[in-house]
Specification:
The structure is a single chain. This protein is α/β, with parallel strands linked by helices and 337 residues long. The protein contains 13 helices and 8 strands. Strands 1-2-4-3-5-6-7-8 form an 8-stranded mixed sheet, with helices on both faces. Helix 4 packs across helix 5, helix 6 packs across helix 7 and helix 8 packs across helix 9. The protein is globular. It starts with a helix and ends with a helix. This is Serine aminopeptidase S33 domain-containing protein. It comes from Lactobacillus kalixensis DSM 16043.
Length: 337
């Protein structure tokens, strides 16, 4: 291409015809546009990373990996070793959305007409609830321990913090009734995300066989809990995390069909008339202890609240086993028999 031909190119012709001031204004607009594009790309990457971190069952650095190992100095050594050695049945059902196989362990008690369903917490599995199984077995209960969707041996793609899992729990309740008879008295005991799942379930139309709820360290709202986790784990200012979670909520609406603010434990508890025992550690920094009071105030049925002195998140039983068993005994004797 000759020099004369180069001079006829549109871009060079533009440079000849425009003043320097006009060129600089255009340059500024282009740079701002490129900056906006770069920011948008960075924001999308940030939200994608954040969403996968919060909503997919990938390893989280701030969560201890579940293990079956039991130390002899563990205050719950007897309970945990009993559970590991106890013979279990395996139950399987389809998830409420029909997409995944869900798996549970079942420990029957001969001629029992009472069953407890134990639900684990975030990024854990059914075996972590074995520490409760011993107590209920000795009290004459059948024990069902499901793996939540996307946890343990159950299938799944996303973690829904209880909002979708509540529908799976209703299917497990129906499965218990179908297999063991309509004369069953069913108790729901849960920990952390499992507790939130059950409190969300409490606002649904449940079978008459469900008699009582025991929730341990459950949060009051998914959005507020994620904001709290983002602040405590990422150490970012709260207003930054609120903006990020709003974006996450919009993404979740597209992926899972609901905004995070709608996944409210409090709204569901407002429709709950079942007897409920609320338990929370005094020093819980994973799910703030204030949420226990919010949950307690929201429910409409008979209720009791126990804040366990010096207990961290999901540590109430190991912190005060004697006190824990007394509260369970008194509550169950009063409302289940």
């Amino acid at each position: 291409m000759s020099i004369l031909e180069v001079g006829k190119l549109p871009f060079l012709r533009y440079l000849r015809e425009k003043s320097w001031g006009e060129i600089m204004k255009t340059k500024t607009k282009i740079l701002l546009g490129l900056g906006a594009v770069s920011f948008s790309v960075a924001a999308i990457a940030h939200v994608k990373y954040y969403y996968e971190y919060a909503f997919t069952p990938k390893h989280k650095k701030f969560i201890k990996q579940p293990t079956n190992a039991v130390e002899k100095n563990d205050p719950l050594y007897k309970e945990k070793t009993w559970f590991l050695n106890e013979e279990k049945q395996t139950w399987r059902i389809k998830s409420a959305n029909g997409k995944y196989e869900l798996v549970a362990s079942y420990i029957p008690k001969a001629e029992s007409h009472k069953t407890v369903i134990l639900l684990h917490g975030f990024m854990s599995n059914k075996n972590s609830m074995g520490k409760y199984a011993y107590f209920f077995n000795k009290k004459g209960y059948n024990v069902l321990l499901p793996d939540a969707q996307s946890h343990g041996k159950s299938g799944g793609k996303y973690i829904n913090y209880g909002w979708r899992e509540k529908d799976d729990l209703i299917k497990w309740i129906d499965e218990v009734i179908g297999r063991t008879g309509s004369d069953q008295k069913i108790v729901l005991l849960e920990e952390s995300m499992g507790a939130a799942t059950v409190m969300m379930t409490s606002g649904e139309d449940l079978p008459d066989q469900v008699k009582a709820i025991i929730e341990d360290c459950g949060y009051s709202n998914v959005k507020d809990e994620i904001i709290h986790q983002a602040s405590s784990v990422n150490k970012l200012p709260k207003f930054v995390n609120i903006s990020s979670v709003d974006l996450l909520s919009a993404v979740n609406r597209l992926v899972n069909g609901y905004f995070l603010k709608n996944a409210s434990v409090l709204k569901q508890l407002n429709k709950n008339y079942l007897p409920t025992l609320f338990i929370h550690g005094e020093k819980d920094d994973f799910v703030p202890t204030k949420m226990a009071y919010q949950n307690y105030n929201a429910t409409r049925g008979p209720k009791e609240l126990w804040i366990v002195k010096d207990a961290g998140h999901a540590e109430s039983l190991s912190t005060d086993p004697k006190g824990y068993y007394k509260h369970l005994n008194d509550f169950l004797n009063k409302y289940v028999g």
